[in-house]
Specification:
four-stranded antiparallel β-sheet; five-stranded antiparallel β-sheet; Immunoglobulin-like; 2 domains
């Protein structure tokens, strides 16, 4: 402010035009390719045991036979779903819903107790990535050899190795697609049709689609699926707490890390047990450093535990620098017994109780499930009419669905109004796992009909499965309406 009391005006000089040319800054960084190193150990053997088990089930189940048919077949064309001795219809969709709910609750419970063991050992993405990595190592070599091969110029050696690898990958993906479609189209018909180029357009599409998905996800995308595409990685933290089993690095024991000779006493040198070899990073399929703490990218495969235990054996330190534990277990130094004692906590009890209730209801419902179903439809082409000596007649169509794999005979009767009866009803035969529409004429005597003129009344059809040597008699009641004209 000047001596006259007025504010001084400071001139603002114009900013000169920028002389630096604008630069394009990308908001997304290209992910570096991960070359997981081969590892051996107890957990690696467990992973391969699960690979063999899951793939024997997946690839083998469509080839099993049951009652002269495919044991597991979801026949969309005839709307029949066969699971060994169980035959389901579209009306049994509630059982599929129950299975999905059970799977979700089981995953919640398992995650709250043991973390992401499903991801590390049995998830299809993990299983097929493990298989594809095995093929890659056999053809191109281990981590360093693969890195050198990718960095080398194209030549005969690189060309044949890449071609062989992708050829085996493509064969695995294609057979996976065929097997998947084999759950919906009988696989003993599907394979010869595929070999002779006789598949239909939809079957061809889905075989190629699932084959390409397996080839792409396990061969190229790998950790990207787990980190960015799988929703489980995003909401798993909602089920974790400090007593959830995770793979953890014992920082109190390992820090400060640093390389040293085997003859050096780490305590005298002021070092922890971690020799900073970075092998735990090199074997990680998602490329994380477990020493940085719990991360959502960790799939719980325990490759870092196997390799770290091997390093500890070589340098003469105790195993368990990286181990399965809980956050409380690592921080407080809890014993295994103490950690197991903290398993039954509120969220685990709630998940377990709900899972047990739903599973019990599911099993009880299957046990009470009727071996046949009936749908009653009024014949819209034939209205209520007066016949004979004044009887009122309604015509219905009954769809009887036999859920057994033997021909069954059914007797049809009706009740609910005085004198009401089925006219000339003969027992209906329905083939194994078949459905049959049966026309039924129902008549009401004139005396009873006169009191119900212009009204509709509720009646019940009684469909009884007649007993045979293997199945006892069963009865199903289905409601409908009987209309009396004015």
């Amino acid at each position: 402010m000047s001596s006259t009391g007025k504010s001084a005006v400071i001139p603002i000089e114009p900013v000169p035009a920028a002389t630096v040319e604008p630069q394009l800054v990308s908001l997304y960084e290209k992910s570096a390719k991960i070359y997981p190193r081969a590892v051996s150990g107890a957990f690696a053997r467990w992973r391969w045991a699960l690979v063999w088990l899951t793939q024997l089930v997946f690839y083998g189940a469509p080839w099993l036979e049951w009652n002269a048919r495919q044991a597991v077949l979801f026949d969309l064309g005839s709307r029949r779903f066969y699971i060994f001795g169980l035959v389901l219809y579209p009306q049994d969709f509630i059982y599929l819903t129950a299975l999905l709910v059970l799977s979700a609750l089981g995953l919640f419970l398992f995650t709250a107790v043991a973390g992401r063991l499903w991801c590390g050992y049995a998830c299809p993405q993990t299983v097929y990535t493990e298989m594809f990595l095995w093929v890659e190592r056999r053809i191109e070599g281990d981590r360093i050899a693969r890195m050198r091969l990718d960095g080398a110029p194209w030549g005969f050696d690189k060309l044949w190795r890449k071609t062989a690898k992708h050829g085996v990958w493509g064969a695995i993906g294609l057979w996976t697609g065929i097997t998947f479609v084999g759950y919906f189209t009988p696989i003993r018909q599907l394979v010869p049709a595929f070999a002779s180029f006789g598949l239909g357009p939809w079957e061809t599409f889905w075989v190629l689609f699932y084959g390409f998905a397996t080839y792409g996800n396990a061969g190229f995308m790998r950790e990207q699926v787990c980190k960015y595409m799988c929703p489980y990685a995003r909401f798993q933290s909602a089920m974790f707490d400090r007593d959830t089993l995770i793979i953890g690095y014992d920082a109190q024991r390992g820090e400060p890390r640093g390389s040293r000779s085997r003859k050096v006493d780490p305590r005298a040198a002021g070092l922890g047990d971690c020799i900073d070899c970075t092998l735990c990073v090199q074997v990680c399929p998602t490329g994380i450093d477990i020493r940085d703490g719990l991360q959502y990218e960790c799939i719980g495969c325990a490759a870092c535990i196997d390799v770290c235990d091997g390093v500890m054996d070589k340098v003469g330190y105790p195993r368990g620098l990286i181990r399965y534990s809980t956050e409380n277990g690592i921080e407080r130094g809890l014993s295994r017994r103490a950690m197991w004692g903290r398993v039954l906590r509120p969220r685990v009890l709630v998940y377990g109780a709900v899972l047990a209730a739903v599973a019990g209801a599911f099993v009880f419902s299957l046990w009470l499930r009727e071996p046949f179903k009936v749908d009653v439809v009024r014949d819209r082409g034939s209205l209520a009419r007066i016949v004979g000596e004044g009887q009122v007649e309604n015509v219905y169509r009954l769809q009887i669905m036999n859920a057994t794999e033997r021909t069954q005979r059914y007797a049809i009767a009706v009740e609910g109004l005085p004198g009401i009866a089925v006219v000339a009803s003969e027992p209906a035969d329905v083939g194994p796992a078949q459905a049959r529409w049966v026309p039924v004429r129902v008549q009401l005597p004139h005396e009873a009909a006169a009191q119900l003129a212009g009204k509709s009344s509720t009646i019940r059809f009684r469909i009884e499965r007649l007993a045979d040597p293997e199945h006892p008699a069963r009865t199903v009641l289905e409601k409908s309406t009987f209309i009396v004209p004015r």
